[in-house]
């Protein structure tokens, strides 16, 4: 666990994808993390709770606020308050919890945020440890919010870090979606640099969200969301996470993301179709 908080740039360590998400948030310079834990997202919270007061940045201990909130809605509200106050924040939950937080999420997407705000939601296909199945991608589509899906353990870390940058570029919440088969699997992750210095919270009423609320109606804010989708599409098209593996001129091309990449890769290998 200590390796997650050490500034061992370039070191390769074995991590759960949920632990890799935590490391990505730390590399992004997160100062607030909140959750109402639920499998398969629980290890994100567990990892944060163990290291919250012992994060090492260039051999200097820095305070870090972590909270097990009353419920998922409160967790997201506290994380949003941190973002409004100019510090980066992440809130983690499972798919059932996203329903609890949906009322607030369906409002904060209209007002927007200041600093990076990432909502990590872990779905449970097959309901391995849940009472239902739910695809959170539909929530992101409904609310016109960007969503990232890591396919590998390295991407779990790197996408989390990038999610904060994306959130700040579009001034809105960014969803990071994992699933059980990713969250509870382990793989090698190469560590990146930890940030130096501390962020100081402060609130400016001339910035979002306050300025957005008083200056525009909900339909106008909704229209801004639609326009933002165009910008998000442009960013996605230039993303380094769009990568290809296979022959130079394939006869068959599989386009996938998230856990679908693992299953597709396995099918290609079983069928011995790597060279097609």
Q: Please summarize the sheet with the most strands.
A: 6 strands, parallel
Q: Given the C-alpha coordinates, what overall shape results?
A: globular
Estimate nothing, just give the exact number of structural domains.
Answer: 2
* First-to-last CA distance: 42 Å
The CATH architecture designation of the largest domain is: 3-Layer(aba) Sandwich
Radius of gyration from CA coordinates: 19 Å
- Specify the CATH homologous superfamily of the largest domain: Thiamin diphosphate (ThDP)-binding fold, Pyr/PP domains
Low-confidence spans: 56-61
Please tally the β strands and state the result: 10
Counting DSSP H or I runs of 4 or more residues, the number of helices is 11
- Write down the secondary-structure element order: HEHEHEEEHEHEHEHEHEHHH
Mean residue pLDDT: 88
Name the structural class.
alpha/beta
CATH class membership of the largest domain: Alpha Beta
CATH topology of the largest domain: Rossmann fold
Helical content class? 40-55%
- The proportion of strand residues reads 15-25%
What is the topology, as strand order, of the major beta sheet?
Answer: 5-2-6-7-9-8
């Amino acid at each position: 666990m200590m390796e997650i908080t050490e500034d061992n740039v370039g070191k390769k360590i074995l991590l759960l994808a949920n632990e890799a998400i935590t490391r990505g948030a730390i590399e992004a310079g997160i100062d607030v993390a909140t959750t109402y834990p639920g499998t398969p997202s629980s290890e994100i919270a567990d990892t944060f709770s163990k290291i919250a007061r012992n994060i090492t940045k260039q051999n200097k201990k820095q305070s870090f606020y972590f909270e097990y909130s009353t419920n998922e809605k409160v967790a997201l509200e506290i994380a949003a308050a941190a973002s409004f106050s100019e510090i980066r924040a992440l809130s983690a939950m499972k798919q059932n919890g996203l329903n609890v937080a949906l009322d607030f999420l369906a409002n904060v997407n209209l007002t927007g945020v200041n600093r990076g705000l990432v909502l990590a939601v872990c779905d449970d296909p097959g309901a391995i440890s849940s009472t239902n199945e739910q695809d959170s991608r539909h929530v992101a589509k409904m609310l016109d919010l960007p969503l990232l899906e890591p396919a590998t353990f390295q991407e779990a870390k790197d996408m989390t870090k990038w999610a904060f940058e994306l959130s700040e570029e579009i001034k809105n919440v960014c969803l990071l979606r994992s699933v059980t088969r990713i969250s509870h699997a382990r793989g090698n992750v190469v560590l990146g640099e930890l940030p130096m210095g501390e962020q100081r919270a402060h609130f400016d009423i001339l910035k979002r969200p306050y300025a957005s609320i008083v200056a525009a109606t909900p339909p106008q804010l909704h229209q801004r969301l639609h326009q933002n989708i165009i910008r998000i599409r442009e960013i996605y098209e230039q993303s380094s996470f769009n990568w290809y593996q296979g022959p130079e001129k394939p006869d068959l091309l599989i386009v996938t993301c998230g856990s679908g990449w693992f299953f597709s890769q396995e099918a290609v290998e079983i069928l011995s179709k790597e060279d097609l």
